[in-house]
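pinging the channel bc i need a second pair of eyes. not urgent but kinda urgent?? the chain im working w is below, pasted from the shared doc
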Amino acid sequence: MPTDGTFDELVTRGGRDAAETKRAVATRRADLARTMRSAQARHEELREELERRRCELEADFARQRAELDAQISPMKQQLARMQEMMWTVDLYLGRDEHVELIRDGAPAAADTPITIRQRVLVMAEESLVLMDRRSTGMDARDLDAFTEWITADPANLDRVLPEQRGVVVLVPTRVRSDSGSAFEDEARDAENSRSWWLLRNGEKLYLLTADITVGDRVLPRRAEFVEVFDRRLFGFGRAAGEPLVPGSDEWMKLERQADARRRHYMRIMLVLQGIVERTPVWHPLPPAGVNLLTVEAQDSGTVVLIQDDETSIQLGDGRESFGQWQRRLNAKMRPGMRIIGDWHASAFDDLRRDGDGRYRAARHPRLHPRSVGCVPESGVPHLIEDRRDGGVIVRYTRTDTVWKRDVPIPDRPGYVYGGEMPVTPSSRASCLVLPTDSWVLPFDLATREELQYYLNSRDDRSAHFLTMVPTLRSAIAAKDSEAQTEGPFRVLLAAQLIDAGAEPETVDGVLDELVHWWKLANTWAKPLNGNPTHEGRAVRQILAEYRSRRSHDADPSTATIIAAGRAVPGAVCVARNRKGAWHVYAASSPAHDPHVFLDITPIDADGTLGTTERWQHLPVRSATLLRPGWAHEDWERWNFAANPMHYLTGPEREAVIAEACAQSAAIALCITETHDKRRPSSRQLISYSWTNPLPPEETPLREQGLRKYRNIDDDLITARTFQITKDRNGVHLTEERGNRYGPSFVQYSASPDDPSWPRFDKVGIPWWPESATRYGDVRARLAWADVDALARVDAWTGRVAAAAAKERERAQAENAVVDQYVKAVSEVIRAEQTATARRRFDEDYGTGAEDLWQPHLETLKLGDPIHPRNLWGLISIARAHDHPVEGQTLSVLDAHARSHRYQAPGEWHPGRQIDLAGFGHVEVPCLVDP
C-alpha cells in the first residue's frame, strides 16, 4: 500500500513522545481545515458570481421580451380584430352556412313582419320525442325525428314558432352525455350545444346552421350590458359599496367584456341580415327591403322582437310552480289513493347503496325486502296500502328471481331439485314513498288539466325536464285511458248534468271536476265502469254535489259568511263541507308543532259564529272534500297527513310538562322537547333540575369547577329523560332509565334573542332557540323554563368563570417565573456543553486555531439533553410544595418530584424517572428579579 511521506514522518519512531506527535497532527489538521475553509469560501464566491450573472441575464431577457411583447401586442390585437372581422363577414356572406328546406309551401305575404324570438329553445324539451325509448329524450343524433315531429302537425310548429314569418334558435338538448367515455361525452355535448336556426315563411320551413354558437338567447336582455358593471357580479377587487372608477383598469376590462357581448349579438343579427339579402328564405320582401339592424324597422313593424327570455317583464299567470304544486299534493298522500312515478329517475337511483361485492350486497333503503332486485313499474298507477316512517307504502309484484331449496320438479309429483334453484317470488315487494320525493305524483289528486298545464309550461318543463316529463306524460296517458274506459258512464252522467242545469258547452269540464271529486271523497281507485251498484251511487252523489254547488254559488249570504270567518283570529280557511255547512278553520294556539291542529267554528248564514271545537285534526280525506270560499297561503302548507297520535295538543303538552315538573327533584330549571319528524312516533321530554344539596347561591367554587370553564358537574344538575306515548287512552310519560350520564345541560352557547328573556352568557342553554337558524339535524326545543332559577345558575356559573379567570392569571404569572428558571438552567447546561466541546476542540486542533472554533461549533448542533418541559415540571413541583429552588441541584429537585409522583400543575405528568443526562449536578441559578 502506498504511504504518505508526511504521515510517515509523524509516526512515532524510536520512542518519540506521543504527545508531541498529537500536537503536530493537530497543527496539520488546523492547516488543512483553514485550506478547506478558503476553498469553500472561494467556491461560495464563484457561486454568488454565477448567480448574479444569471439574474442579470434573466433580467435582460425579461426586458427584451417585454420590448418584443410591446411591439407584438398591438399586432396581435390587430390580427385578432382582423380575424374577428373576417369571421363576421363570413357569417354575413354565408360561408360555412347550411340551409335545408324541411317543408315547402306558400310563403307569407310581403308585408308580414319578421319576428325574432329571444329565447333559445331545446328540441328535446319542446318535442318530447323519443322520451319513450330514452329517459333523456332526443339529442343531436335524432334531428330527423325532430323535423318529422315539427312538420307532422301545425300545432307542433305553433308551439315553437307561431308567427307566420320569423326565426327561433334551438339546441338539441341540455342533458349532459353520460356514455362512460369522456372523449365521446365531450363530442356529444359539443354537438348537443350546437345552434340550429328554425326559419319560417308562411308554410315554408328551413333549418339553418352557421359557424356561431348563439348561447342562451338571441337578443340581449334589457339590463345585460349594465349588469357587466354591477359590483355583485364582477367588482371583487373593490370594497363593498365602493363605486367603479371610470377609466380604471377594472373599468376597461369590464368595458371590453360588455363590448364583446355587443359584438356577439351584432353577429347574430348579421347572420339574419345576410339571410334577408342573400337568400330567398323570407321572400317576398317589402319593396323597400328589410334592415334588421335599424330601429326604424322595429318602429315601423317590419321587424318584431319578442323578449320571451326577459324575466323582468314576464308577469306569469299567478299559478304555483311545478315544484310547489308537486310538494303540496304529495303532502296529501294517504292509503287508498294511487301514485304514479318514474322509478328509474336518477334521484331515486342515487339512493341505492352499493355493496362491496363480497360481504355486503347492494340494496335500496326504500325497498323491502332488502334483497329485492326490481323496482315498481314506471308510468303505472300504484295503490297506497299503508303508512310508515313519515311516508306511504306501495306494494308491487316482483319480476326478479330468488334462489330456494326443495323446488318441485314440474310434471313429477313428489320430486324436488337438488340444491338451490331460481324461482319467481310469491310475495310482493314494498316501496316507501316520502312527500319530498320528486319522482312521484298523487295520481288521484292531480287533475288532467293540471297535468297538461305543467307539461305545456316551458319554464317548468325546462327546470324539471328529466324528473317531471316522464311522470306527467304517463299520468296523462293513464287519465285518458281511464276516461275512455269510463266513456259510457260519462255520457250518461253528462246528460243528467245538462238536465240539472249545466251548460252543454262546459259540461265536460264540470264532469271531469265532479268525477275527480267523487273519487277522492270515496277513495275510489278504479274506473267507473262495469259495476252498476257503484255507478248508481256515484251518479246520485255527483248530481247532489252539483246541485249543492249551484245553490251555494247563488246564495247571497256566502260573502257575509266568508267575511265573518276571515275576521276570526288565526283563520286560515273558510269552507263548506259536503253537507253544505260553513266553518272557519283557525290555527290552534299556542301550537308547539305548527300546521297540525285547527280550531273549527261553524258559521250561520247571517255570519254568526257557533261553538268552537279546539285542537282538532283534519284528515286528508276531509280536507280534500271541503269547498273553500277563502284560504290563506298557510292552508296549502297544512300537514293534513299528520298522525294526531304523534303530536300533542296544547292541553296535552301542558299536562305532560306539569307531570315532568312534579317528578323533578330540588329546583326545576327547564324542560326541553325533542321530536324527529322522520320518526314522528318518537317524542322525548328532558327535565333539568339543580339537585345539589346547596342552592346555587351557597354552592362553593370547587377546583374542578374552576378547571371546567362553561361547564357544570353532573352532581349539580341532573337530567331526566321521559318518553311520550299517545294512544286512545291519553298521553303517557315514561322515564327512560339505564343511561348513566344523560344529556349535557350546556349544549349551546346561544341565548334567546327575545328581549324579554335574560341572556345566559355563562351557563349556556340545552335547547336550540326558535329564532336561530334551522339545520337538518334534530335539536331540542324549549318546552318550559323557570327563568329565575336559570338566572341563579347563570350567576353561580359566572362566579365560577370569574374564579377560573383569576386562577388562569395566577397560573400564567407562575408559569412566567418558572419559564425564567428553565431558561437560566438551560443556559447553564448549554455553557457546560460548550466548554466540553471547546476542550476537545483544543485537543484536536491545537490552541492556535481560534479562527476555526466558531465554524466548528456550528457543525456540532448542540441540543437540549434535558427537555425544557421536564425542567419546567421539576421546578413547578418544587414551587407548588414550597420547596427551595434557587441553589438546588437538578438531582435534588428530581428526588423531590419523584416523592410527589411527578404530579406537576397543569398537564405534565411523566409518571417515571427523568433522565438528567449527566447534568444532575447543575444548580438552579438565582433570578435577578424573580
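so The CA atoms of residues 596 and 639 lie 6 Å apart. and Confidence is low (pLDDT under 50) at residues 228-241, 704-713. — does that match what u expected or am i reading it wrong
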